[in-house]
């Protein structure tokens, strides 16, 4: 582990998801009124939905992308390239150049295009999921991460270095509105079950934001700990660096990975208050939701392990270690739900692992600094963005 942490420091990746230099942010809290649109949409009988991931089960592929070839797309953030893997042979079948520092590959809301987020290149490179070939980049300011509102009406570009979230046309990426955020390092988010609000993480301010999407404004903040002014592998007690965010299957909890606190926060999706904290491992970073919506797979990037949470009980039930160590970051799950694909951020490889036993199935060399891996196609009605958060 010491060796891989040294490598991480050398390549400038230890600061969590981001490569942006932390910038100052106001510590003044916003209005403290409870979020007014947090409750999940009622089900047919008036009850809360049983499973917001009910449509990502095996066999529930959207017919619009069901015939697209199954591939794993890897943005190599330090090589400025994308590697394309055939998951059936575990072989890289294509590598091509993209803009500066590609950090995530994001399926569009309707699955018609995969967007490469070229952060330093100030552009989004489109990939055709039917051919696997790139197109001409679209100019976009500081695209560190990319999401789509559940109704498909807006693309949300996480312009981390500019301290804002840009609302854009989801097809042309034309700018509609820039929403400033009161924090540093905004980069991940997820949406409430009714799609009216979102929770975003700010890694350099140790904060979460509650966003009213209709009004396009931050209505509340939540501080998780002491912010880190500079990246470190040993932040000490009380520090926080929130990363990935994911809604629970029942729509009642937001899970937030924390790379400094080394675990996950459980945040009440009705009141926006901390329920509790669960320790998972060093450098907790990314999430994947299993095909049945029951399990949450959690990467512990600094120690090379995967933790598994049962979302029905909110108990950790497994911890799997990558043989020989590693740096699992983020990725996606195969359409049949049997294989999870993780980028090895500090090791220049991709890991294929069993979702049932955690067994390492393959370790595939790619470029330098592989980051937000996209597995496509996947079951679901639409994509909410990131590397493939489907519902």
Provide the fold topology.
Blueprint: H1 2-11, E1 71-76, E2 81-86, E3 91-97, E4 102-107, E5 114-118, E6 123-127, E7 138-139, E8 145-148, E9 155-159, E10 164-168, E11 175-180, E12 186-191, E13 197-202, E14 207-212, E15 217-223, E16 242-247, E17 253-258, E18 263-268, E19 274-279, E20 284-289, E21 295-300, E22 305-310, E23 315-321, E24 328-333, E25 339-344, E26 349-354, E27 360-365, E28 374-376
Antiparallel strand pairs: 1-2, 1-28, 2-3, 4-5, 5-6, 6-7, 8-9, 9-10, 10-11, 12-13, 13-14, 14-15, 16-17, 17-18, 18-19, 20-21, 21-22, 22-23, 24-25, 25-26, 26-27
Write a short abstract of this structure:
Helices cover 3% and strands 40% of the residues. The protein is mainly β and 391 residues long. The chain has one helix and 28 strands.
């Amino acid at each position: 582990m010491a060796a891989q942490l040294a490598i991480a420091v050398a390549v400038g990746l230890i600061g969590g998801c981001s490569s942006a230099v932390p910038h100052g942010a106001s510590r003044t809290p916003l209005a403290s009124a409870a979020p007014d649109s947090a409750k999940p949409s009622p089900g047919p009988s008036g009850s809360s939905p049983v499973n917001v991931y009910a449509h990502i089960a095996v066999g529930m592929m959207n017919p619009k992308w069901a015939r697209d070839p199954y591939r794993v797309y890897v943005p190599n953030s330090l090589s400025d390239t994308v590697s394309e893997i055939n998951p059936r042979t575990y072989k890289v079948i294509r590598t091509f150049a993209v803009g500066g520092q590609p950090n995530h590959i994001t399926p569009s809301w309707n699955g018609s295009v995969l967007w490469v987020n070229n952060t330093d290149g100030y552009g989004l490179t489109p990939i055709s999921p039917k051919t696997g070939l790139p197109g001409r980049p679209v100019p976009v300011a500081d695209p560190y991460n990319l999401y789509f509102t559940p109704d498909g009406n807006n693309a949300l570009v996480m312009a981390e270095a500019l301290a804002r979230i840009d609302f854009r046309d989801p097809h042309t990426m034309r700018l509609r509105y820039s929403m400033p955020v009161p924090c540093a390092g905004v980069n991940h988010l997820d949406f409430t079950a009714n799609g009216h609000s979102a929770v975003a993480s700010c890694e350099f301010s140790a904060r979460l934001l509650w966003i009213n999407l209709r009004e396009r404004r931050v209505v509340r903040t939540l501080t998780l700990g002491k912010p880190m002014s500079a990246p470190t592998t040993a932040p000490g007690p009380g520090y926080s660096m929130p990363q990935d965010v994911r809604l629970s299957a029942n729509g009642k909890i937001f899970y937030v990975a924390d790379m400094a606190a080394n675990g996950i926060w459980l945040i009440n999706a009705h009141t926006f208050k901390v329920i509790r904290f669960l320790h998972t491992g060093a450098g907790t970073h990314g999430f994947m939701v299993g095909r049945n919506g029951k399990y949450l797979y959690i990467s512990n990037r600094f120690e090379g392990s995967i933790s598994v949470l049962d979302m029905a009980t909110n108990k950790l039930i497994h911890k799997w270690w990558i043989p020989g160590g590693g740096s699992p970051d983020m990725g996606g799950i195969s359409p049949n739900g049997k294989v999870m694909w993780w980028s090895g951020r500090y090791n220049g490889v991709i890991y294929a692992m069993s979702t049932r036993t955690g067994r390492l199935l393959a370790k595939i060399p790619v470029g330098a600094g592989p980051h937000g891996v996209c597995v496509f196609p996947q079951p679901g009605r639409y994509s909410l963005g990131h590397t493939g958060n489907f519902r």
